[in-house]
Amino acid sequence: MKFLVVLAVAVACAAADVSHIVRSDESQAPIVRSDYEMQPEGHFQYAYETGNGIVSQAEGVVKNPASENAALEVKGTVRYTAPDGTPISYEYVANENGFQPIGSHLPVPPPIPEQILRGLQYIADHPAPVVKKTV
């Protein structure tokens, strides 16, 4: 019985139409433009464009380079066409606060309900009293 299940799965995988997932022409896209510059202190910038319409550019800067709190901040943009034909474009910042993309195709959370906002404001206005422990 196990053999039949494995055989059925193997036949299903072999017969599956994955042409919508694997697009061989994408792997052969030529690089139309490529620029890269890097400085010894860690600053860099790059830009590239492929023959299939992918365009990306970014610039990285080391913040506070001579301190213990040195951090890399990268700002960039990406533009391409999704498999369904939708043009995708977004900007991003990546730094000590994480990756922060901004684009019209990205989901947006719903607004915070008014009751929650009032509750958060009440908590901020009335902090919990500090209890001192005596040992």
UniProtKB/TrEMBL annotation:
GO terms for cellular component: chitin-based extracellular matrix. It comes from Vanessa tameamea. Keywords: Cuticle, Signal. The lineage of its organism: Eukaryota, Metazoa, Ecdysozoa, Arthropoda, Hexapoda. Pfam families: Chitin_bind_4. This is Larval cuticle protein LCP-17-like. InterPro entries: CHIT_BIND_RR_consensus, Cuticle_Struct_Prot, Insect_cuticle. GO terms for molecular function: structural constituent of chitin-based larval cuticle. PANTHER family: CUTICLE PROTEIN (PTHR10380), CUTICULAR PROTEIN 65EA-RELATED (PTHR10380:SF238). Residues 1-16 form the signal peptide.
